[in-house]
């Protein structure tokens, strides 16, 4: 069995709900502002995507950002399997959610995922390093439109996952009002 050629797929997974409307501008990157987080999310160690205290988490490691593109690496762990030896699709979607979230927060406002769309292009083995990137395609009021991809083995390796998301700006209280403890 062969892996389908990604060249025959559409350029991105975006539906109309994750495509910025005409005229939506891409704002200047504001950089992570510690005042936005109030200690709630900045480098939150318990984060399943990036936290060091999440034992089975993805532990995404940011490798930098420039020109509006944030980059990270993710090494697929045994705890992240779906089929034997291969990453679970939901885990890969989580990695993309995290990446798009970072790209949104770099705009200098608080965002949460409203909608996440994912294309899975090829299987990703346990032990492989996924090279991830994400960027903003536009902002329209409270809505930010993000895109990203993950490539296997190298930044220019074969694409394994692509995502598009709609993130919605929320007030600080969003992160405290529904907490159970
Ligand atoms: C340094 C920190 C780094 C952080 C990285 C974090 C990465 C991880 C990110 C996450 O996973 S966040 C957790 C998962 N997401 C959530 O828990 C969000 C749960 N949903 C909500 O809280 C609310 O539904 C939400 C804040 C998204 C929207 O509710 P609101 O009442 O504030 O707004 P509203 O429903 O009026 O929607 C605002 C606009 O967004 C649109 N919208 C909202 N959800 C949508 C959706 N799913 N699809 C399409 N459009 C959507 C909606 O139509 C509307 O468009 P218009 O302004 O044009 O009318």
From TrEMBL:
CDD domains: PaaI_thioesterase
Domain Thioesterase residues, every copy: 85-150
Annotated GO MF terms: hydrolase activity
Enzyme Commission number: 3.1.2.2
This protein's UniProt keywords: Apoptosis, Cell membrane, Cell projection, Cytoplasm, Fatty acid metabolism, Hydrolase, Lipid metabolism, Membrane, Transit peptide
Membrane disposition: Peripheral membrane protein
Main location: membrane
Region of interest (Disordered), ranges: 1-35
Enzyme class of the recorded protein, top EC level: hydrolase
GO cellular component, as recorded: cytoplasm; membrane
Gene Ontology biological-process annotations: fatty acid metabolic process
Catalysed reactions listed for this entry: tetradecanoyl-CoA + H2O = tetradecanoate + CoA + H(+); (5Z,8Z,11Z,14Z)-eicosatetraenoyl-CoA + H2O = (5Z,8Z,11Z,14Z)-eicosatetraenoate + CoA + H(+); octanoyl-CoA + H2O = octanoate + CoA + H(+); hexadecanoyl-CoA + H2O = hexadecanoate + CoA + H(+)
Compartments reported by the entry: Cell projection, Ruffle membrane; Cytoplasm; Membrane
Family to which this protein belongs: Belongs to the THEM4/THEM5 thioesterase family.
Designated name of the protein: Acyl-coenzyme A thioesterase THEM4
Species, as recorded: Actinomadura namibiensis
Organismal lineage: Bacteria, Bacillati, Actinomycetota, Actinomycetes, Streptosporangiales
